[in-house]
Design brief:
Elements (H helix, E strand, L loop, with lengths): L3 E9 L6 E8 L2 E7 L8 H14 L6 E5 L5 E7 L3 H10 L7
């Protein structure tokens, strides 16, 4: 059984080029930067970030859920995945394996 873990994310909504990768030192510590095309209206940027995170980590979308930060750029997502995903997350955070 996969053990859930938490991922801190900094969302940049309304950008022209969507991208996942890089680090932002925010209120939850080291956060993964996710830039999305969707505007910060009616939860669209949050949903786009959730889908982008799932795709970047190679997990199904249903395995990623928002824990906190619905109305903030700084969010915490819970990911239900195995330990192999931690290495991928680490590479995304340090920017050596960005997607987008």
């Amino acid at each position: 059984m996969d053990e859930p873990f938490t991922v801190a994310v900094r969302v940049k909504p309304g950008v022209s080029r969507a991208r996942v990768g890089g680090r932002y030192d925010g209120p939850h510590g080291a956060a993964l930067v996710i830039a999305v095309n969707a505007p910060a209206v009616d939860g669209r940027a949050t949903e786009a970030a959730r889908r982008a995170l799932a795709g970047a980590l190679g997990v199904r979308r249903a395995a990623v859920s928002l824990r906190s930060g619905a109305a903030s750029r700084d969010k915490l997502f819970q990911v239900d995945a195995g330990p192999e995903v931690a290495g991928r997350l680490s590479r995304l955070l340090d920017g050596t394996d960005p997607i987008g």
